[in-house]
Amino acid sequence: MVALYVLLFGQICVASCVLPIGSQPEQVHLSYPGVKGSMVITWTTLNATESIVEYGLWGGKLFTQSARGNCTTFVDGGSEKRKIYIHRVTLSELIPGFTYVYHCGSEAGWSDVLYFTALIESTSFSPKFALFGDMGNENPQSLARLQKETQVGMYDVILHIVLYSFFVHVNGLQSDKAQVTKPKIHISEYLQRDFAYDMHEDEGRIGDEFMKQIESIAAYVPYMTCPGNHEWAYNFSHYRSRFNMPGQTEGLWYSWNIGSAHIISFSTEVYFYLEYGLDLLFRQYEWLKGDLEEANKPENRAARPWIITMAHRPMYCSNNDHDDCTKFESYVRLGRNDTDPPAPGLEDLFYRQGVDLEFWAHEHTYERLWPVYNYKVFNGSTEEPYMNPRAPVHIITGSAGCREKHDGFIPKPREWSAFRSTDYGYTRMHLINSTHIYLEQVSDDQSGKVIDSLLLIKDVHGPEAWL
After folding, report:
1. Burial annotation 37-53 (CB, 10 A radius, 16+ → b, else e)
2. Do 431 and 260 touch, CB atoms closer than 8 A?
3. Which strand (E) or helix (H) includes residue 172?
4. Whole-angstrom Cα distance, residue 275 to residue 269?
5. HSE on the CB side for 391, CA within 13 Å?
6. Per-residue confidence (pLDDT) for residue 346, from 0 to 100
7. Cβ atoms within 10 A of the Cβ of 413, count?
8. Statement: residue 340 has pLDDT above 90
9. C-beta separation of 157 from 258 below 8 A
10. Phi, psi (rounded to 5 degrees) for 235
11. Nearest Cα to 389, choosing from 321, 324, 466?
């Protein structure tokens, strides 16, 4: 009789203790939608379920509030046509600076209990960021250190400066491929490098694994992204489906405000994957021009004097990889003359609009530049080059770790290259106030040692700063 009871109990336990794998939330990540007092929570399930977030203030009773969102079906473009279900819920009327405890899912399965702090909306807010690019699911060298630092509250926002590219529809408008002039350089030359390496691999399962890895960071602070090139497959559908950024362009280009900064994310890939629509290149350029003009209105520049950009492929670099870094023909910087009409570059636009700081990745190294425009150095002074510089400052931070390992440098740095390192690592930024930004580079190879730093000081912002 005892043996029978044990057997029956064991069977009941096995049946009741099996996790609801298909309906269990995974890949949880946050993003800031650019709306005061809001946060977007995104996650994935393998089965269709409801989309619910239960939350409450830290220190109070758990899950006193609830919000519902929507679930969309994502179909990978591989032979299996594998499906996953992506859930999005927006939390509103959050109290700035207060920490919330939450979990997400449905009665069919819940995530772990997680937490985040609602962003402070004040222009006097002094946020801290971690910035990095080119971190993949294989050899994510910097991930463990970033996990710990994020969970102990070192950062308010993560900027991942490298995600895929663009797509055929923006705001419901279809690209006109018939108008695209075939580029002289074949597209296949550019189908190398960046985010999860590559999210579409193994019918999208590599993307799932990478998203699970970054949950230990991205579920705690807003994880803001920009498109890169390694996710080119199936018209970059993994990027635009898995992430939720401000605006209506599925994260291809957007801007948002935090503290004394206006931050712009855009796609360098519109200059390379012309097979998906030349019109996107021109549409982004016009959007950038309009966004920068709006940011430069006197009342806006006074409130948010810093203009910071983040994008994938750098305008300048000194890596020895037989592309823009050695040919010095950057499409992003100069534009393209092999399209009809010719495509404008971005360096002149950013210079005319007084962009202060430009972050890049793509090269699997770290490089800090002197203030530079048109390959000429415009330091503030010999003694203090970053005090009131007369050109934008560029930082390349693509060494977080991936399966492609490091990139090398040309032996002799160019005159605009101030510091270079092949150590795995990432960048920290402290937006101190309207005149000071502190930056430092962390070496994971050297157990978290700060190997480079600078204090960028600007008493004047805008185009007049270059005079």
Report:
1. ebbbbbbbbbebbebbb
2. yes
3. none
4. 11
5. 17
6. 98
7. 14
8. yes
9. yes
10. 60, 40
11. 466
Q: Cα dist. 82→79, 208, 330, 393, 410 in Å?
A: 8, 12, 37, 44, 43
Q: DSSP letter at 135?
A: B
Mean pLDDT of the chain: 85
Paired tokens of 168: 């055929």
Q: Parallel, antiparallel, or unpaired: how do β-strands 254-258 and 261-265 relate?
A: antiparallel
State how far the Cα of 25 lies from the Cα of 56, in Å rounded to an integer: 19
Which stretches does DSSP call E strand in 133-259? 157-160, 169-170, 173-174, 223-225, 254-258
Q: Name residues whose C-beta falls within 8 Å of residue 108's C-beta, 6 or more positions apart in sequence.
A: 20, 23, 47, 49, 50
Task: Locate 343 and state its tokens.
Answer: 């495509």
Backbone dihedral angles phi then psi of residue 330, each to the nearest 5 degrees: -55, 120
In DSSP terms, 275 is beta-bridged to none
**Segment 278-316, tens digit of pLDDT:** 998 999 999 999 999 999 999 999 999 999 999 999 999
pLDDT at 352: 98
For 101-147, write each residue's pLDDT tens digit: 999 999 999 999 999 999 999 999 999 999 998 655 455 677 889 99
Q: What's the pTM value of the predicted model, to 2 decimals?
A: 0.87
